[in-house]
Amino acid sequence: PPEWRLTALTECLARGFVAGVVLYLTAWTYRRVTGRDGLGLGDVKLGAAAGACLGWSILPMALELAVLLAILALAATAHPTPTIWSRSPISIRSSMWAAIRPAPIWR
C-alpha cells in the first residue's frame, strides 16, 4: 500500500534530520566554546545521509564508532616520530585498508 511507503519515507527523512541537527548543534557548540571549527558542514551532511540510511537503534553506535575511529586517526597522526601512519589522509586510508584486508595485496 502507498501509505506504507509514505511512512517509511517520513521515518527516513526524520532520522536524517535528527542526525543532521545533532551534528550541526555539536559543531555550533564547539565553535562557540573554542572559537575554531571542529566539524564542517560536510560532516553534518554526511551524518544526515547516514542517519537517513541507518535505523534508530544503530545510529548512536555508528556515531560512536565514527568518533572512536577519528580519535584513533588523530592519535596516530599526532605522534612526533615517523610511523606507519603518515599525516596525509590518503596514507591513513590505505594503511587502514591494508590492516583490515584479509588477503595479501600481491597475488
Strand/helix succession:
HHHH
Which stretches are poorly predicted, pLDDT < 50 over at least 5 residues? Answer: none
Rg, Å, rounded? 18 Å
**DSSP E strands, number:** 0
Mean pLDDT: 76
Strand percentage: under 5%
What is the SS-derived class? mainly alpha
Query: Considering DSSP H and I runs of 4 or more, what fraction of the residues is helical?
Result: over 70%
Q: What is the CA-CA span between the terminal residues?
A: 51 Å
Please give the count of helices. 4
The outline comes out as flat
Profile the largest sheet: none
Overview of the molecule:
- Helices cover 72% and strands 0% of the residues.
- It contains four helices and no strands.
- The chain has helices spanning 2-34, 41-53, 59-77, 89-100.
- The longest helix is centred in the N-terminal third of the chain and has 33 residues, at 2-34.
- The mean pLDDT is 76.
